[in-house]
User: What shape does this take?
Amino acid sequence: MKKIEKIKQVREKYKRCMFFGGFLLVLIAIGGCGNAVEAGTTIPSEEKEQIREMEEENLQAATQEEPQEETQEEPGEEAQREPWPEAPILTCTVWEDNRFDEDGTLLAEGTLSYFEMSARGYESAAAAVEAFFRSQEDDFEKNMDLLEEYGQDTYITSQEEDWLEFYPYYSRQDWEITRADAGIISFCGRFSEYFGGAHDQRWTSGVTFDAKTGKELRFLDLAKDQEKFLEETLNVCLEAAEEKREDYNFFPDYEEVIRSRWQEEPEWYLDGSGITVLFSPYEIAPFASGTVRLHLPYQEFGEYLLPEYAMGASEGMALLPENEEVRIEMGYDRLVSSYLLQRTDGRSFLLFDGDMASEDYVTYIYEVTDGKRVKTWESDVTTRIRQGSVTPQGSLELGLRLDVLGTHMTYGHFQITEEGTVEEEGAWYSLERETILTTVRELPVLVAGEEKTLSAGSRLLITGTDRKGIMGYIDTASGEEGEIHYTLSEEGRPVYIEGVEETQYFEDLPYAG
Assistant: This one.
């Protein structure tokens, strides 16, 4: 039966690799193509002949070895897909922490996204993920205390010295799932902090856990042949760096830095098609180049990777890296937030945002079956997927533009349906960034369902919206929560509050665009 299994494997590799355009490069490892078939190639004639001979030689033997009970199949009935193991359940929460002076001035602001995990059979990994994000939360709180202290001192100085303009300090820790299945739970974290000065400080980090044991994995833990794994991944990384060298304006010693990382421990995470190695600003390139991501495809070193960490054998989700061929194939200037979802019933979906360099994002969902793609959903308004919000269970946050009271982008929770479309999970939308507005005239509001008027000079933190005419706020002086009710003109602008344009109520409305 080994020869028959070989035939099935080669056929499956061939069939799965007949995928459209540039998605081949990112889905070969996901679909189980392994190392034998490269993107865009066909099976050599010698191998086809070998398959034919093996089929003829083993057809009779196979029948004799494993007699199967005959079953009648209904006309047109398709074979059921083999169910995949269930993936762990992960949920993301974004925690916002704002610190104010007594006069209501924002001194420091912070956001932290963290994940909780649960599912039968993944208790050890759930405990490890919980412990990790609890430590992140502890560090974040300590950092916010420092930011508040420093912000307070700088704010007082700015009040005494006319030359010093005060800007709130901030700390942002944004984590996203890059891969979550029965083998691997991997995250990427993006950090930025501002303690004053010309610009903030930024860095990127990765953390990966074994989904069964909960062990936090080091780079060499992925390998079954550590020496070969190190050699091959280093070579692939250096080749990827050479391709990006001029675009990112690498420092002259970038190769030396990369080699030194391989002697220690590179910063990395796993996604849907390989390992992504991270270099924060100033490591191998200047601050203006941002974080440098060097992608190492699974097919380049898959033979040295432990099989339990291979991609594509279970339900789950994975981030797909940037791919130039995909962008060209789909006809967009940019493709962002691309994900692959694999469901327990064997169905696979691609989610991605397309942009024509105007930030008018459109979100698409495609189902991938036998190497073919079928579009199941396309947003009819400007939307984009919130980074880190996609889970193995097909829930996600979509951003929708809403230019009301200084709010540019709002985020709501959605679920992918059986038909591959999306449906809203809740009626309340969070904001991309909470905004503080100062009133310049009396403002009508609702507090606990009762009408009330706020005086001029009130400072209000805008917290969320139902996108149908209500914006939530918190009075920064009293802590009182309430609602501002608005109406839109037929064209969407201007926005009115009891018949008066919104611009007449506030000192400034900081629209993002």
Residues 30 and 312 are 5 Å apart (CA to CA). The mean pLDDT is 82. The first helix runs from residue 2 to 16.
